[in-house]
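User: Can you predict the 3D structure of non-specific serine/threonine protein kinase? Sequence below.
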Amino acid sequence: MSTLVGMQLSGRYRLDAQIGAGGMSTVYRAFDQNLERRVAIKLLHREMQGDSDQLERFRREARAVAQLSHPHVVGVIDTGEDDNRPYIVFEYVEGETLKDRIRRLGRLPVDESLAYAIEIARALGSAHAHDIVHRDVKPQNVLLDPEGSAKVTDFGIARSLRDDGLTADGRVLGTTDYVSPEQALGHDVDGQSDIYSLGVVLFEMLTGDVPFHGENQIAVAMKHVREDLPDIQVLRPDVSATTAAVLDRMTDKDLSHRYPDVPALIADLEDALAIEAARSGTSTGEATAVIRTLPARTQRRLPFRMRHSIPLLAVLALVGVAVTIIVIVAGDVPERVVDRGTGAGRVESTPQGTRTVSVPRGSAQDYDPLGDEEEHGEEANRVVDRDDGTSWTTETYEAGIEGAGKEGVGIYVDARPEVEAVQIQVKTPKPGFKATIYAAPAGPVPKSVPEGWTKVGGGTVKDKDQRFKLDTGGESFRYYLVWITDLGDADSAAISEIRLFQEVPRR
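Assistant: Sure. Here are the predicted structure tokens for non-specific serine/threonine protein kinase:
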């Protein structure tokens, strides 16, 4: 099928890149020119227009997901037709799929696996409450946003199996690696089928592989009908008996023994997560965020220090230390040499009278207006995650940025609503690149450099912890851009943290 990249749908949506394809439709990253934002568009294949069943299934997906408003479901924004070709507009989620993450890392940490299972289950619970059964739960249909949160997508065969079961040509609707026994046999299915499929996804997260392999899809489907899943504690000995029991019940072939509904499943998954976290004494990845959402009865299973990020005595101790430091600094402020505007701009320590600008996770964005508008956007929020061990990287430019026909590439931080920053800190694992710091006011992000941007500083990033003084002329700006113009001796640049500082108001 020929690509449609570059065309506009309904005079509004510009198709920028193909990001997925199936037998029924193609998914594009697109740009909504009315609202000036990225979206994802699922466009029905032209050859499907004459297939009334496929056309109805496509329209059914839009109607089904439009009913849902849930933080772990990819939402429908709009629907329409262009030249008699129907399309669905979804929110665009930066990041990778859960399948991509498993392929990249292999088996995931136990607590992280449970955390994703909880988020997916919460999404399915919302769908089931609206009488919508997904029927194709698999890690390929789970997107991980820049903050690590899971979002379920692709309700393309939702509610269709009650009518179709196995299609006339023997093709199973659903993916046989995750198909429930009753679905494989063409029986009517309900929410318990989604629970089984989610159990297989949890198994894959814990082991790095699906439970069954076969010569073809039907052979795999029949294994789901006839064979028990491999013992998770044999394959992953660090999994607790509680987690193993939950997984066994999720994937029980006897519907009377399987979880009857998602709320019952979620309660046990939450208990299992608390138990796993208590056993290890730590939490990893998305588990840290999900633990904060556990009900109070479940959180009581956790150690005190995991329920309370900083104990009271520690808070008092920190306050005492802070007061001492303030007294010392107030009495003995060292000389600091700082260059204004461009130039080296190195500052040995944070100047007196400044404070860090607080920006939320999700406030960073890659910036490549002179190329394909993509510069490892899925990594962008690593520069504001307060973790020096993670980095955003540019693409690889073997002939340098100029050799690629660009004047620069960059990444910006959204300091909403606006702030008069006086200093920027750029941390990097590999210094040596040159960067200009630009700022722009509230409103749409300028589409090119330097139009719309104000130059406020910059120079060579000589050290792993480089700071530049910013000269904003007393103005407040919303966006602060690190515009990389020279990679030095490297073929790429990496930034682990970007922090802004503003003056503390004088009383």
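The longest strand covers residues 409-419. Residues 160-173, 329-348 have pLDDT under 50 and may be disordered.
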